[in-house]
Specification:
Length: 556
């Protein structure tokens, strides 16, 4: 009896493991060939060098650190022989950076916040104080909602609170004439509010960077602070009134927003493109120094494999963009309408380098919007980022998710890389391409407990993780640009198998008729898209295989 129970349990445990890490589907021969040539060529050290370089700067479109990062990436591409140009667009708002941002106790001079120690503590759009700084009382408004301000005189003071800097700004500076704010506002997934529930000592020191409105009337300032610093101020406030000294020296810039456009031209259908995008702005090592470094390393790997004649040039053009998140993509799509119409597939690379042992989350493929983005499915949980707004009528199936996932799993077979997916949520450059009707997905990591914080530094970045993502995206991009008829036939099988697996999965999680119908429609369209996979003229054999697979799918 005992042995029998054990055998049954072992069997159940085994099938659960298999379901979690379901066996990787075979990738088409063309993808396997590209994978074999690219897997040793994506240089993690070169990607890490870009992360470290960009970490020097708080990059904001139009500011010197943004432009220096653009120049550095462009030089890396040019040195490797990739065709590269820099395009310029109108910037969002004004560029901004700062040289001094210091808060100290006025009496003891003890420094509470500074650029040297905290790097991103001053809020974007903070104006300079008069040279030498100002002195003012600091007033604690607790949570910082409107009632918390009642009975407190904050005019001419600095406001401390746990609301967002934007909210404290509206209530304190705009409505009541405060000089500036210090906010400990932080997302719940970074740390719990209650220190008794902290799981790591650095939760005392972590804060999320932020911004205040660009306000030429108030000309105020905002700071973000850790709980440790806020508590230090509150300890003093228990004894009596406290004055702080604040010195800010900041600079605004009106230059254009620069974007790198690098291309490996296609030989069969050069007007058709596979586009890959990483964003330069923001201060983080992982967000998105890692995406920028990964994209450079994979572009150079492709260029080298082609130059060394280990891989043929792609059939479609491979386009690599580095710019201002979302706005840059929108500007590129608007400036090149003919190219935009013929973009076949798009990959967004954002937060691709997380050292998951430190940051917490795993690698995720945020899928092109499929039915799991419309109907919550137990098998497809959303991240802490939260669901996007996707309507059933917007869905149009393509091969992108299943092909890229198969290639990621191919990489995982060799390296033990943990690959998961989440339904479409949106927020980075893939959103702009999706809105332009292009099948687009995001390669990222979440939850990252250092997301948008002072602690998103190079020590949280893993070169091996960037290599995994770089190899997978390079393989997928080359394959989607260069597939043969045989590859397309193999892809029909891959998509048909993925459709069967999805319908079988949905049978185990009580899918309604509406949901099953949506998946059949989505996969029927995904099969259609395989007819356009091979660049150049359509193949009758592929079209026949698609028609057969669609008949089988609709008969299920
Ligand atoms: Zn990002």
């Amino acid at each position: 009896m005992h042995r029998l129970v054990r055998a049954v349990l072992t069997g159940a445990a085994l099938s659960a493991t298999l379901a979690a890490q379901s066996p990787a589907p075979a990738v088409p021969a063309g993808a396997e060939r590209a994978y074999a040539e690219l897997k040793e060529r994506v240089d993690g050290a070169a990607a890490m060098e870009i992360v470290r370089y960009m970490d020097q700067y708080w990059r904001i479109s139009g500011n010197p650190g943004f432009n220096a990062s653009i120049d550095r990436i462009r030089d890396g591409l040019t040195a490797a022989g990739v065709e590269t140009r820099v395009e310029e667009f109108a910037s969002r708002g004004r560029g901004w950076d700062y040289q001094i941002g210091t808060v100290s106790f006025a009496d003891t001079g003890e420094v509470l916040l500074s650029r040297e120690r905290d790097r991103v503590s001053l809020c974007i759009n903070s104006f300079s104080t008069p040279a030498g700084g100002i002195e003012a009382p600091i007033i604690d408004v607790g949570a910082g909602s409107a009632p918390d301000f009642e009975g407190k005189s904050v005019k001419g003071a600095v406001v401390l609170g746990s609301a967002s800097a934007q909210q404290l700004w509206q209530q304190g500076v705009k409505a009541r004439g405060a000089l500036g704010v210090i906010s400990t506002g932080i997302a719940r997934y970074i740390r719990p509010n209650d220190p008794a529930r902290f799981t790591s000592p650095d939760q005392w020191d972590v804060f999320q960077w932020g911004s205040v409105p660009y306000d030429t009337d108030a000309k105020g300032f905002g700071f973000k602070a850790s709980l440790r610093v806020a508590n230090k101020i509150r300890e003093r406030l228990k004894i009596g009134a406290v004055r702080v000294k604040v010195e800010v020296q900041s600079t605004f810039y009106d230059g254009p927003s620069r974007m790198i456009v690098a291309e490996i031209p296609g030989t069969v259908a050069p007007d058709e493109r596979i586009v890959m995008v990483a964003h330069v702005q923001e201060p983080g090592a992982n967000d998105d120094g890692s995406g920028c470094g990964t994209l450079l390393a994979l572009a150079v790997a492709l260029q080298k494999a082609i130059a060394e004649k280990r891989l043929p040039p792609p059939g479609r053009t491979l386009t690599f963009l580095w710019g201002d998140e979302n706005r840059g993509s929108r500007a590129w799509l608007t400036a090149h309408p003919e190219q935009a119409k013929r973009v076949q597939y798009m990959f967004s690379l954002d937060m691709t380098g997380e050292d998951t042992a430190k940051t917490g989350g795993t690698f995720l493929v945020e899928k092109q919007a499929d039915p799991s983005a419309v109907w919550a499915r137990p098998s497809d949980p959303h991240t802490a980022w939260g669901a996007g707004e996707v309507k059933a009528a917007e869905l149009e199936g393509s091969l992108l998710n299943d092909v890229h996932l198969a290639i990621c799993r191919r990489r995982a077979q060799d390296t033990g890389w943990v690959v998961k997916t989440n339904p479409y949520e949106g927020g980075s450059d893939h959103t702009e391409f999706k809105n332009a009707g292009v099948p687009a997905l995001l390669d990222w990591h979440f939850t990252d407990r250092y997301y948008h914080t002072n602690l998103d530094r190079p020590d949280k970045t893993s070169p091996a993780e960037m290599v995994n993502v770089g190899v997978a995206v390079a393989t997928s991009a080359w394959f989607l640009a260069s597939a043969t008829e045989q590859d397309a036939l193999a892809t029909v099988r891959l998509i048909a198998n993925a459709a069967s697996a999805r319908l079988a999965l949905e049978a185990t999680q009580a899918a309604t008729h509406e949901i099953l119908t949506a998946w059949r429609k989505w996969y029927s369209e995904a099969l259609d898209s395989v007819g356009r996979l091979k660049p150049g003229p359509r193949s009758a054999a592929v079209d026949a295989a698609i028609a057969r697979a669609q008949r089988d799918l609709l008969a299920r």
